[in-house]
From TrEMBL:
Name of protein: Winged helix-turn-helix domain-containing protein
Organism expressing this protein natively: Streptomyces carpinensis
InterPro entries the UniProt entry points to: Homeodomain-like_sf, Winged_HTH_dom
Domain Winged helix-turn helix: 79-137
Highest taxon of the lineage: Bacteria
Database matches in SUPFAM superfamilies: Homeodomain-like (SSF46689)
Length: 162
């Protein structure tokens, strides 16, 4: 897109027209124009990814093997057996002595086709049998039956004349 903007700058097109056609903001087009005037088309080339991955391909393969073992294989023996961002971050720190922030973990996993699994927050005292009984027996009584069709009005000022 930036290189396409170079052609527009060379032709002398207006900033707003270039922004509209390229579907970007006029501010971006002006910034690209300043960079082009100072350094030519080379100044508009991509600088590469914003973040450099800190794990080598071999380390990533090893990490994938460990992630497939599951949380239980790494000492997480609680009720929820999923991979959270915190757990993966801790695992990378233990294995490779590399630190990531939580946002970095999300990007890293997504970049490699993995996802985080969020734990379901439930109270330990929760009793599933009692909940099912309540849903089946108590809730229908509390809820009651639907009223039959009654002529009503949405207006507060004009009640329905019946």
């Amino acid at each position: 897109m930036r290189l396409e903007a170079v052609d527009r700058f060379a032709r002398g097109d207006k900033t707003e027209a270039a922004a509209r056609d390229l579907r970007v903001t006029a501010r971006s087009v002006r910034r690209w124009g300043r960079a082009w005037k100072q350094g030519g088309a080379d100044a508009l080339c991509s600088a590469g990814p914003a973040s450099v991955e800190r794990l080598s391909p071999a380390q990533w393969k090893r990490l994938e093997r460990e992630l497939r073992r599951g949380p239980l294989g790494h000492g997480f023996d609680d009720e929820f057996q999923g991979r959270t961002l915190k757990r993966v971050r801790l695992l990378i720190g233990r294995m490779f002595h590399v630190g990531y922030r939580i946002q970095g973990m999300w990007k890293l996993l997504r970049r490699h086709g993995w996802s985080a699994q969020m734990p379901v927050r439930r109270v330990p005292e929760r009793d599933e049998e009692v909940i099912e009984v309540w849903k089946a027996e108590v809730w229908p009584q509390v809820k009651g039956s639907r009223p039959t069709w009654v002529l009503t009005s949405a207006s507060r000022r004009r009640p329905v004349r019946g």
